[in-house]
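S1.2 Input.
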Amino acid sequence: MADGRSHDRLTSLLALPYGLLWWPALGPAGAALAGGSFLFGGLWLSPDLDTISRSTRRWGALNLLWWPYRRLLSHRSLFSHTPLLGMGLRLLYLGGAVALVSALLAPLGAPTPTQLMDACQRLWMQQRPWLLTALVSLEASSWLHLIQDGDPVPRLPRLLRRRWPRRPRLGRQRARHQRRN
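S1.3 Output.
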């Protein structure tokens, strides 16, 4: 399992080559979007947001946003360290936080959550290739993290782990006696 510095170093090192892979299909703007999304996903939306980590500290004062996320998930859980599911849940969590802040600030003139959803739908209809590129790049950075951790099977979250009573182990003497009989 790699430490935070190793994750950051490899993410930063591979962001440019990853972005350049998109150049033939989407041109220089698409390459910049892919590389930037890869970098953002690896440094700010890391699977390690379930701990107090370098990626959590990068959020500065907004790192309090991730406190409930850390409390709900244990480190390397199924919901944080699983391909597709982990990044998808982090994006949903972040979107939910934005919607909550929007709802709280709506009386002060901020856009309502409904207005934000309408804007997101329009953006999806008009810029789908760009958004898909960004989403794939965010997921690619998550996969890089998981590959570095060598984490093929994440743990179940605390809430879903069942505490099975352990069977008492037989002592050596008793086990030998049972084998003879």
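S1.4 Remarks. The chain has a mean pLDDT of 86.
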